[in-house]
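quick one before i forget lol
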Amino acid sequence: MPEKQLKGDLVPVKEITAMLVGSLYRLYADHYDGANFHRFQSDLYEKDWALLFRAGSNDEVVGFSTQMVMKVEVEGKRMKVLFSGDTIIHPDYWGSQALVHAWCRLAGEIKANDPSLPLYWFLISKGYRTYLYLPFFFHRFYPNRSAATPAFEQALIHILARLKYPDSYDSSTGLIRHQTSHDRLKDELDVTLRRLHNPHVAFFRKINPRYAIGDELVCVAELSAENMRSTAKRHFETGLHGCTKKLAGSPS
């Protein structure tokens, strides 16, 4: 679907109504097995914003991605981290780049609000589609099939994963392994096995062999113009240079 058919808005979570929460959950549960409303709601309300994507004359929400900013210190170095939570775009719109463009602009705006601090992306990959954002967006990202994870980024992965998932993080594998049934992409939407010719997909499956039952791979990448590729870099710089005020809903 052409991107022009989707309209994206950055909405502070505190402004999302209970009715809209229900609509977002139904969209999510339609595409993920193991979804749980109370867990979904809790995850949503801890975030700062939701990127909402609408289509059609009735402004139906056909996609969203929840986002929050964290502040951590690694080896004496203070930094900000953009953490991406639950994300789904209806399969009818998988060809759209609206999510990519809006998210990159948001990352640039966050960087502009505190340019002196390094900014990293923290995401947990439920499947190969999420993981592929890394090689598409970045020159350096971890885990990476082409390079061992440097000590600093490995320490960052451990700190973030233990902070967010203290009871589920397996530091020996870099995976979040939930103790109970957890969200996983419905089988009919998972085409991983048909994409194994892609070396990044094959690598993801190798290091997260149980992704289909809900294991999630912890990943990081620095959010900087120098580290970002082509379209992602362009939209990041749009946010970076176009931001003139503090983001609504941003933590102090």
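fyi The domain at 3-239 is CATH 3.40.630.30 (Aminopeptidase).
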